[in-house]
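Why do we bother with a discrete structure alphabet at all? Because it lets us treat a fold like text: something you can write down, compare, and reason about line by line. To make this less abstract, here is a complete entry for Large ribosomal subunit protein uL18. Read it the way you would read a sentence in a foreign language you are learning: slowly, and without expecting to understand everything at once.
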Amino acid sequence: MVDKNKVDGRFKRHRRVRKRVFGTRERPRLCVYRSLKHMYAQLVDDTTANTLLTVSTLHKDVKEKLNGSMKKCERSRVVGLILANRAKKKRIKEVVFDRAGYRFHGRVKSLAEGAREGGLSF
């Protein structure tokens, strides 16, 4: 069972960060969601409220690159790399990172490092 105070605290932090973090078409917002098993990342243009690109550990082509023996941090790094490669195809080089109220360590940090390895700058 999830601790209600922990979830509420994350939502408060997310709202506080979202006041300042804003994505445009040239520099979209890289939003991260972390569940217990999977990792999700998407590029969002907040001016038109459109999602430009999504990648998660559940997509078929991502699953092909993941091993069953990989740890969650390693899987997150692969998601970041694939996201960066797809963003390059759409001519997106710079993003604004939205950690969604999560701490910047563990899976969130490895996804960011993977995206940086793939060529995104933020």
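What the structure line is telling us, in plain words: DSSP finds four helices and four strands in the chain. The radius of gyration is 14 Å.
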